[in-house]
Specification:
Elements lengths: L2 H5 L15 H25 L3 H41 L7 E15 L4 E14 L3 H10 L1 H13 L3 H5 L4 H15 L6 E11 L1
Antiparallel strand pairs: 1-2, 2-3
């Protein structure tokens, strides 16, 4: 290697100059960001309900709350009424289930048994019980059907066996009279049949 070569090394290639972002690049970036923001705003405005829709939704919610409150109030009222009815029944307080006693007449029945040659003389007073609230309706129907009712009671007693008449509770006779009386009235208004001064003599 010569001295000239050693004293003057070969020049190195210069590095390429870094290109700085220009004004147009900045404008392009701002435009892209602006478009994205506008798109987001448009999307949000499309999803948001209008003022009328907001009002309608609010009214529906208020109406639903009112209906729920009314249903709860009705349920509480029904429970309170049921509790009051139970308390009235438990303490014997007058109410819709208060019973009234009604007179169904005095009876003298004579039957003759051809097989034994004996006769039965039966005397009694008959009463019944009805709900207090149904007493006016019972009185009206009883007056309208009194003759038929008396006939049904007489037929029932005449058909009774001695064993039925000897029953201390007269259970079968009471059930039969109750069934025929209510059938004649057309409604199950009579709740119980009660015998008073009951007596029968076999001769």
């Amino acid at each position: 290697m010569s001295a000239a070569t050693a004293a003057h090394p070969a020049p190195q290639a210069e590095a390429p100059a870094v290109k700085k972002p220009g004004f147009m690049t900045l404008i392009k970036a701002l435009a892209v960001v602006s478009v994205l923001v506008l798109l987001q705003l448009v999307g949000v405005s499309m999803l948001m309900p209008s003022a009328k829709e907001t009002t309608d939704i609010a009214e529906k919610l208020v109406a639903a709350d009112a209906v729920q409150e009314a249903e709860e109030a009705d349920a509480h009222a029904a429970v309170a009424a049921a509790d009051a009815e139970i308390d009235a029944d438990a303490h014997g307080a007058p109410g819709s289930h208060d019973m009234r006693e009604v007179k169904l007449g005095s009876y003298h029945v004579v039957t003759f048994n051809t097989d034994t040659g004996t006769s039965l003389n039966i005397d009694f007073e008959l009463y019944g019980t009805v709900l207090a609230k149904e007493e006016p309706e019972f009185s009206h129907l009883y007056e309208a059907n009194q003759v038929r009712l008396r006939e049904q009671i007489l037929v029932t007693v005449r058909a009774a066996e001695v064993a039925d008449l000897s029953d201390p509770d007269l259970g079968l006779l009471k059930r039969q009279i109750l069934e025929k009386t209510n059938r004649t009235l057309g409604k199950p208004l009579l709740n119980e049949a009660i015998f008073s001064k009951f007596s029968f003599i076999e001769r």
